[in-house]
TrEMBL record:
It comes from the Bacteria. The lineage of its organism: Bacteria, Pseudomonadati, Pseudomonadota, Betaproteobacteria, Neisseriales. It comes from Chromobacterium phragmitis. Pfam families: DUF1842. Residues 11-133 form the DUF1842 domain. This is DUF1842 domain-containing protein.
Length: 157
């Protein structure tokens, strides 16, 4: 059963932040999702930031958009990120006329207990890095610590 806040949210806009990671993997990728949710259209926009403990601090950052479906008390969330790539002329100047869109990120996840992402929430994602796709499956989804603490202070949980 969806929590009361999920059922009552038929208009307006709210913010959610999640950490997506594999809990038993030291040094793996960590995905942060910073999202704005617009319930009347079931639309989600925001950004995806991927870091890696053993690589450069920032591996990937992209604007994302998508949608969600309510399934019982759970949320099925689908996101994609598309970057606009520009062709360059011989002097290295970007040419807007030759710009094209290319998908660089995909995420789908199941948020148990609604937007709170209770225990058992999981997902998978893939992103393009240096021209090749990297896929991470079986990832745990948790509400970010900052958001969890804010909800706790406001007694939203």
């Amino acid at each position: 059963m969806a929590n009361q806040a999920d059922r009552d949210q038929k208009s307006g806009l709210f913010i959610v932040n999640y950490n997506v990671f594999k809990s038993n993997q030291v040094g793996g990728y960590n995905l942060q999702l910073r999202l704005s949710v617009y319930p009347p259209a079931r639309r989600v926009t925001g950004e995806a930031i991927i870091t890696h403990a053993t690589a450069q601090p920032l591996v990937f950052e992209n604007q994302v958009q998508g949608h969600y479906e309510e399934n019982g008390g759970n949320i099925e969330l689908i996101l994609q990120g598309v970057r606009q790539h520009h062709a360059q002329d011989q002097q290295g100047q970007q040419q807007q006329a030759h710009a094209h869109l290319r998908e660089d990120f995909f995420f789908d996840g199941l948020l148990k207990g609604g937007w709170r992402a209770e225990h058992g929430s999981h997902g998978r994602y893939a992103f393009r890095l240096n021209g090749r796709w990297i896929e991470e499956i079986g990832q745990e989804i948790q509400q970010s610590e900052e958001q969890h603490n804010a909800h706790k202070a406001l007694r939203l949980l």
